[in-house]
Amino acid sequence: MVKVKSVSNEGTYYLVNGWRRHKAFWVKRGDTPMCLFKDARTAKMSLTKLLKTMPDYASDSFIIEEV
Q: DSSP strand E in the chain: where?
């Protein structure tokens, strides 16, 4: 399992898995189950789709962490 961490001027946030379904992109706490992705490939794919939808986040720093 992996999670995507975003570090920016606003703080540290974690990408929500199924962000379209949950109607939320980021959460402050990364220990929630909705932040976990099956593998790094799935996490990258979700992040890529989000950045195509909202290019404002492209300047953030992203880290894929294994759990």
A: 2-8, 11-15, 26-27, 61-66
